[in-house]
Every structure is written in structure tokens, then in C-alpha cells.
Design goal:
By secondary structure, the protein is an alpha/beta fold. It contains 10 helices and 8 strands.
Length: about 250
């Protein structure tokens, strides 16, 4: 029987975003894959420290405890070989993360596997891998190091989206860039009742909205915001598009 990912938020994350593998990555970049593999095997029983995206992944997985059926699936997507990936799974088990699936590609690009795993969002510390994912039509984000003394909440997740060229297509953004603000505003006025096309993060927004629709009354584990340079009167098309999509957001900043 096929593994059912319908109505789930599927996050693909690199091992270096989930865990602190900066020292190991330096070994790989300076000495090559053989030295890297040797180091990982020699240290496979040493638990990895939490990485930059660990608090977000922990909070997302914690959402599964709030519902009758799991709503989030996290899949480790790594260029590690299966053998060197053992240390990653040892660390996953140590931190009691509910992650049971992974793709270890043995140095090959991760991008070809994103569709097979039905990934809604790919997170990585590799700018190159993120760009390849975006170029192939997937929502992807470059993970930066956490601020010092960061203390993330496990019980509330806040996600903010830009609008044009992010959750919506870049059709209106192109008019602004090529013809200026007045032409952009006129286009939005004329097409106010025509829903904007979906952009690279549109599917992710829709999936998050489905999760919000399942929340019990008066509980807000997940808050979604839109932060956009659009102002009045261009705001109206955004609101009507979201309504047409059946998407609910908590906050909007125009």
C-alpha cells in the first residue's frame, strides 16, 4: 500500500540544517568525501548538537500531538551516504524526533527526489541546493544560523509570507518593475476580481491553511501572516484571491 501523504505538510530538510554539522562540512570541503565519511563513521555514536532549523522542526512535529491524525511529515534529505547517515538517525532517535524517512543520495543532487517525496517545503543550509529546488518549481528556503540565546516556542509557530512572486505568481511584480507603480496599481484595479495565479509558495500556504482549518476552537498553534509592500488599493486583490483559494490567514500587513 502506498504511503499516504494527502493533507499532510511534508517538509524536506538537510541533515546540516537539522543538526550542527559545520565542523563535518568543513572536513568535506577541505579534504573530500573519503575523509568526511571516515570522520562520520568514527564518530557515529556521538550525538550531534541541534542545528539552526531544529526548533522549527521540533515545533512542527509537535503539531502532530494536537490532532487525531498526524498533519506533518518530516523527511531528512541528505547528500550523505547511507553508511554515514547512521549518525544522523542515531541523533534523531536521541532527541525523540518523529522522523522515520530519509533520502541519503551518496553525494548526488537532492532535487530529483523532491517530487517523489511530495515535498511542500525544502530547508537547507546549502544555498546551491535551495536554488536548484526553486529553479525546479519547489518551495525552498535557505536556513541561517539562529540568533544567540534564541528560545523558540514549541507550542506556537508563526510563518510570514511575502505576496508577489512568493505565494502569488510574479505577473503583477513584472508590471511594477517594467512600467512602474502607477501601471501596477491600474492593473490591480482592472483585475481586482481576477484571482492571482499561484506562486512557488502557494501550495505551501494552502497546506498550512488546511491544517489551521483542523484546529480546535479557540486554539492557535499555527499563525500565518502576509507581509507585503502592496498598499491600498492593491490590497483588495490579495484578499479576494485568498478567499477564492479558501485560504485563511491570521494577519496581513499592507
Amino acid at each position: 500500500m502506498a504511503y499516504d501523504l494527502k493533507d499532510k505538510l511534508v517538509i524536506g530538510i538537510s541533515s546540516r540544517a537539522l543538526f550542527n554539522l559545520e565542523e563535518e562540512n568543513n572536513i568535506y570541503e577541505k579534504n573530500g568525501v573519503e575523509e568526511y565519511s571516515k570522520y562520520q563513521i568514527e564518530h557515529e555514536d556521538e550525538i550531534l548538537e541541534k542545528g539552526a532549523a531544529f526548533p522549527l522542526i521540533e515545533a512542527l512535529l509537535n503539531l502532530n500531538k494536537k490532532f487525531d491524525k498526524p498533519v506533518v511529515e518530516v523527511i531528512v534529505m541528505s547528500r550523505n551516504s547511507p553508511e554515514t547517515g547512521l549518525r544522523v538517525f542515531n541523533s534523531i532517535n536521541y532527541y525523540n524526533l518523529d522522523i522515520i524517512r530519509a533520502a541519503f543520495t551518496g553525494g548526488k543532487s537532492i532535487t530529483p527526489y523532491l517530487d517523489a517525496f511530495k515535498i511542500d517545503l525544502f530547508l537547507s543550509k546549502s544555498e546551491e541546493d535551495v536554488q536548484k529546488a526553486v529553479d525546479n518549481g519547489f518551495a525552498a528556503a535557505h536556513v541561517y544560523d539562529l540568533p544567540k540565546n534564541f528560545d523558540g516556542s514549541k507550542d506556537e509557530i508563526r510563518i510570514a509570507f511575502d505576496a508577489d512572486a512568493v505565494i502569488f505568481s510574479e505577473e503583477s511584480e513584472k508590471i511594477y518593475k517594467e512600467k512602474g507603480l502607477e501601471a501596477f496599481l491600474e492593473n490591480e484595479r482592472i483585475n481586482v476580481n481576477k484571482p492571482l495565479s499561484e506562486g512557488p509558495f502557494g501550495k505551501l500556504l494552502k497546506t498550512l491553511s488546511l491544517i489551521k482549518d483542523k484546529e480546535v476552537a479557540n486554539s492557535e498553534y499555527l499563525r500565518i501572516a502576509i507581509v507585503t509592500a502592496r498598499n491600498s488599493p492593491a490590497h483588495k486583490r490579495v484578499i479576494l484571491t485568498l478567499r477564492q483559494w479558501g485560504v485563511h490567514v491570521d494577519e496581513a500587513f499592507f
